[in-house]
Design a protein that fits this description.
This protein has about 180 residues and is α/β, with parallel strands linked by helices. It has one domain: P-loop containing nucleotide triphosphate hydrolases (Rossmann fold). It is built from seven helices and seven strands. Strands 2-3-1-6-7 form a five-stranded parallel beta sheet, with helices on both faces. Helix 3 packs parallel to helix 4. The protein binds BIS(adenosine)-5'-pentaphosphate. BIS(adenosine)-5'-pentaphosphate binds next to helix 1, helix 2 and helix 3.
């Protein structure tokens, strides 16, 4: 199938849901890891500082990461349809990244704002921003739809509710079948 992109607000559980990918014969790459490898070499101290960089720097890192991932081939990409920056929502999949990666499916993993806030609170290793989770999920839907129309990808929404992770993983696996 080529590239499948999996997105969702921080802490929604997208990495958890895509764990089924390797059993379906897909490699997994985290877009943020690839961006951070490049950013770290330029002196950025941790991944949570990336969304606080000037937007032009984030876009440059994004472009480089997209080009690197596009060269991999068949892969599931853990990333974002939007990133909340000090200047508003930055598209995680701008035209140049989408056209380079040409995903067949843009997956949105969603949960309720209460579930997401509680999952974030349990992870003390991260520096999460306080944000409006419901609004961020709405923005993600809008950005995913826009990107899909540009390249003809499908958009799939997976609900990942508390205690229902097996069901969410099964939904994701069925997309890859
Ligand atoms: P990224 O690496 O994606 O990190 P993140 O957004 O902080 O997301 P996480 O990995 O922390 O959360 P997750 O949603 O995967 O949740 P998880 O499965 O761990 O991005 C890092 C940075 O890279 C971004 O901030 C940005 O700067 C940059 N970046 C990335 N892509 C970009 C792009 N395209 N353009 C520009 N910049 C980009 O689960 C969370 C917790 O919930 C876990 O404890 C888990 O056990 C629990 N959980 C999950 N599901 C359930 C369930 N059903 N029930 C109960 N608990 C559950």
């Amino acid at each position: 199938m080529g590239v499948v992109v999996v997105t969702g607000v921080p802490g929604v559980g997208k990495s958890t849901v895509m764990a089924g990918a390797s059993e379906a014969g897909y490699g997994i790459v985290n877009f943020g890891d690839v961006m951070f490898e490049i950013a770290q070499a330029e002196g950025v101290p941790n991944r949570d500082q990336m969304r606080r960089l000037p937007v032009a720097d984030q876009q440059r890192l994004q472009r480089l990461a997209g080009e690197k991932i596009a060269a991999i081939g068949n892969v599931v990409v853990d990333t974002h349809t939007s990133i909340l920056t000090s200047r508003g929502y930055l598209p995680g999949l701008p035209e140049w990244t989408l056209r380079a990666m040409a995903p067949a499916i843009i997956v949105l993993v969603e949960a309720t704002p209460t579930e997401i806030t509680s999952r974030r609170a349990k992870d003390a290793t991260r520096q999460r921003d306080a944000d409006d989770v419901a609004l961020h999920q709405e923005v993600n839907r809008a950005f995913a739809a826009t990107g899909a129309v540009m390249i003809g990808a499908t958009v799939a929404i997976i609900e990942n509710h508390d205690g229902e992770v097996d069901d969410a993983v099964a939904q994701f696996r069925s997309l890859l079948a």
